[in-house]
Amino acid sequence: MSSLGRASALLAAGTMVSRITGLLRTIVLVGLIGANAAPAADAFNVANQLPNDVYAIISAGVLTAVIVPQIVQAAAHADRGNAFISKLFTLGTVVLLITTALAMLAAPWLVWLILGQAPAEQQALAIALSYWCLPQIFFYGLYSLVGETLNARRIFGPFTWAPVANNIVSIAGFLVIGALFGTPLEQVQQWTPDRIAWLGVTVTGAIAIQAGILLAFWPRTGLRLRPDFRWRGVGLGNVGRMAGWTLLMALMGLVAGLYQNNVASIASGAGPSIAVMSNAWLVFMLPYSIIVLSIGTPYFTQLAEHAHAGEHTQVREDIVRSIRILAFFLVGALAAVLAAVVPASRVFTRFPGDAPEAALVLVAYLPALVPLAVLFIVQRTFYAYGDTRTPFLFTLVQCSLIVATTFTAQILVSDAVVPVESLAATIALGQSLSSTIQTLLAVWLLHRRLGGIGTATWMLAIGRFTVAAIPAAAAGWGVYILLGGSAGWTLATQLTGALGAAIVGIVALIVYLGVLALMRTPELDALKGLMRRFAPTR
Fold first, then answer.
1. Tens of pLDDT along 362-421?
2. Cβ(123)–Cβ(112) below 8 Å
3. DSSP letter string, 375-388
4. How confident is the model at residue 248 (pLDDT cuts 50, 70, 90)?
5. What is the dihedral of CA 367, 371, 372, 377, to 10 degrees?
């Protein structure tokens, strides 16, 4: 368990630095192209989101579902998995190159699927940017292939720290573009071919550097990687069967996401749209990434080992322990973000008056924070047992609900029941509802498979954390009001928004921990252990 603690601490530190520099990257980008009611920002987010969607699918679907369990099993081979991994990387590289080429050929069609209702000039800008952004698919895939292999070999740090270099390079590039061409570049007609090229080289070059950094750590795996096109005879057929279901999941998620952005584009130039939704999701993912990925990733590797060994009792204990610890941290983060939602949203807007509209989108995403953490553990338990079909089924339910709720949002706006300025928030709320239902279904299915996963134990723990979060969020909101609320200094600039959000969030967390201390919550020991690992030693 101490090794898990050290890995979690290392991942938490790397993820925290990565996310903080990622927030700085977004702040600089907002200063360059705007966010709320900025057509150029929506066009860029469409172009840059296409490779990001594929990366999210690869990292959370095919690779995590297939690669980690398979590499863990391959480590028991006489050659420590060398033959298997060489063939796998050769196949993966070929697939990534083909996928990237096909995506670039389909770029106009993909952009039309999202911005088909937007003006032709905005679609043309998104297409031009997408040609520069889509090569990121290859570099994201390479980063994930190498990173997941490092994780499977219990080399957790590089995968989490490499994105810091990506963010630093991006920030420098954005600042150079702003110095050369001025800011803000919010309107479509401001983007000439040379400006498009500068932005495209910056964002794609940063991803290539991120992937290259991971390759420098490959010698630590002890594996000899070489091209090998003989793909038969080492179990890749099983990988293909498992990846088939995750590929279908990927396609479903892509379709649902494209439809969401297509409907959200109706509000482009009039209120929160694709760019604001992207920034709100970034804030939503900040606690999720720091907490879930840093703590959950080492648990997943251990859980895969226990599942492969047939130690089902240990798997159940892993599930209960990981969900309780994740929920302990995440419910506190939920209280802090909810209390600081307006000043936090000000960080990603150019004007104070845009912050409340952007905050509404973030609030709509927040109900899914804890359910998605539970889903992370449940879904990866199925993966650890080599089952990708069941996750496909409950993901099918989620994607169907996302499409249905997004269609409902579009109807409500067209009938003037919901103002167009609230369209993005309505879509986000529908996604939260869909993800929560997906999690409930996934928990029930895993409970049936394993004959119980300690649901009552971790549900009671979540209830206890929620009781502590209510006064914590109220205290944080009270501090925000005391600081002047919407008319106060916390919304004056992006910097004061960040400072105000930090003050409000810290107060909420202190109250949350104080209430749990009075309740003698055992999960506080996990926090103490984590703090000891970060504390300097003699």
1. 999 999 999 999 998 998 888 888 788 899 899 999 999 999 999 999 999 999 999 999
2. yes
3. HHHHHHHHHHTT--
4. confident
5. 160
Angle between helices 369-384 and 294-308 in degrees, nearest 10: 30
From the list 186, 485, 513, the residue with the least C-alpha distance to 359 is 485
Tokens of 424: 């993005």
8 A C-beta contact, residue 462 and residue 327: yes
Q: 10 Å Cβ neighbour count for 476?
A: 27
Other CB atoms closer than 10 Å to residue 2's CB: what's the count? 8
pLDDT digits (tens, 9 = 90+) for 183-229: 889 899 999 999 999 999 999 999 999 999 988 888 877 777 777 77
Do 480 and 342 touch, CB atoms closer than 8 A? yes
Residue spans of the domains in the chain: they are 2-534
> Position of tokens 């929506």?
42
* Whether the predicted model's global pTM rises above the 0.85 cut: no
Degrees (nearest 5) of the Cα angle 290, 294, 298? 170
197/209 Cα distance (integer angstroms): 18
- Please, where are the H alpha helices in 75-192? 82-105, 107-115, 120-133, 136-152, 157-181
Instruction: Find, among 306, 270, 338, the residue nearest to 505 by Cα.
Output: 338
Decide which of 161 and 247 is more confident: 161
Mean pLDDT, all residues of the chain = 86
Closest CA to 223 of 412, 26, 385, 85: 85
CB 131 within 8 A of CB 200: yes
State how far the Cα of 326 lies from the Cα of 322, in Å rounded to an integer.
6
